[in-house]
């Protein structure tokens, strides 16, 4: 199968190639795509070298699937052109996520919404994916009323410029700034730009995407997204109020049985998820599961995942695996 990876030389694009190789995705021809300045560069995939090509060249090669991680503007312009030649696009940007005609998919939760007509499929935001992976099975059982989430997000979510800023600051060197402020020994309560309501786009993604993926606009969500000097993954403190009461042991049991979720939860042995140990893994890790004693039917949890893997590349590849396995491409 001909597969294009658009944004192949970027941070997420490189992880996409790594995941495609690890999972032995059935690729007969890889088409690495990047901006004109990268055309002609070589990348290595499964021991073979491939030359990076531009968008139109890739479209003319008519790939079956194109996995995009190249920013919203690029996706808005080029995803429809791939779709016009019959390619199924899986896009990691925010461009299509809230488009009512496009599906927003976490395979373990709602892959069944996909049909052969879906030629542009949206990959949710990383901080949303890890949260709904834990919320979805609990929503089914206890009916979520409200979610309050605070995120502690890796600088890798911003990209290589942020990684370089932290390295420079750590070494006391000057350099290009990805953020308005120093990130070393700091926490910045701003991920992405502010909207009219004084929430950031990142915070509103957690609100809007959660409701779309769980297909329930009655779920109230409020979020605070914070950037911290960590590289292994995003962490989230999640407070969930349900319509129904629960036993914490039942919550743990449900999550233990949820594919793609690993429970790490034992305060006696200081066992709980941390980004240092989630890095490079595809599961979503949950711990610090405890009743919120300040109000009925409410639970606190701590959720950690590698934002470049399940939060982006792996989820996108799993969507590709699903459409191949179900003859939707
Ligand atoms: C971030 N989730 O972490 C956003 C985009 N990757 O900045």
What labels describe this entry?
329 residues; alpha/beta; Rossmann fold; Dihydrodipicolinate Reductase, domain 2; 2 domains; six-stranded parallel beta sheet; 32% helix; binds 3-amino-D-alanine; Aspartate-semialdehyde dehydrogenase
SSE layout:
Layout: E1 2-6, H1 11-22, E2 29-33, E3 42-45, E4 48-51, H2 55-60, E5 65-68, H3 72-84, E6 88-91, E7 103-104, H4 107-110, E8 120-122, H5 126-142, E9 144-153, H6 160-170, H7 201-213, E10 220-227, E11 234-242, H8 248-256, E12 261-263, H9 275-278, E13 284-291, E14 298-305, H10 309-325
Helix pairs in contact: 1-10, 5-7, 5-10
The protein binds 3-amino-D-alanine.
Catalytic activity: L-aspartate 4-semialdehyde + phosphate + NADP(+) = 4-phospho-L-aspartate + NADPH + H(+)
Binding site for substrate: 153, 227
Function: Catalyzes the NADPH-dependent formation of L-aspartate-semialdehyde (L-ASA) by the reductive dephosphorylation of L-aspartyl-4-phosphate.
Overview of this protein structure:
With 329 residues, this protein is α/β, with parallel strands linked by helices. The chain has 2 domains: 2-123 and 312-325, NAD(P)-binding Rossmann-like Domain (Rossmann fold, 3-Layer(aba) Sandwich); 127-307, Dihydrodipicolinate Reductase, domain 2, CATH 3.30.360. Helix content is 32%, strand content 23%. It is built from 10 helices and 14 strands. The protein has helices at residues 11-22, 55-60, 72-84, 107-110, 126-142, 160-170, 201-213, 248-256, 275-278, 309-325, and strands at 2-6, 29-33, 42-45, 48-51, 65-68, 88-91, 103-104, 120-122, 144-153, 220-227, 234-242, 261-263, 284-291, 298-305. A 6-stranded parallel sheet has the order 2-1-5-6-8-7, with helices on both faces. A 6-stranded mixed sheet has the order 10-9-11-14-13-12. Helix 3 (72-84) links the parallel strand 5 and strand 6 (88-91). Helix 1 packs across helix 10 (309-325), helix 5 (126-142) packs parallel to helix 7 and helix 5 (126-142) packs across helix 10 (309-325). The longest helix is centred in the middle third of the chain and has 17 residues, at 126-142. It starts with a strand and ends with a helix. The mean pLDDT is 98. Residues 125-127, 153, 157-158, 191, 202, 307 line the site of 3-amino-D-alanine. NADP(+) binds at residues 9-12, 37-38, 307. Catalyzes the NADPH-dependent formation of L-aspartate-semialdehyde (L-ASA) by the reductive dephosphorylation of L-aspartyl-4-phosphate. This is Aspartate-semialdehyde dehydrogenase. Substrate binds at residues 153, 227.
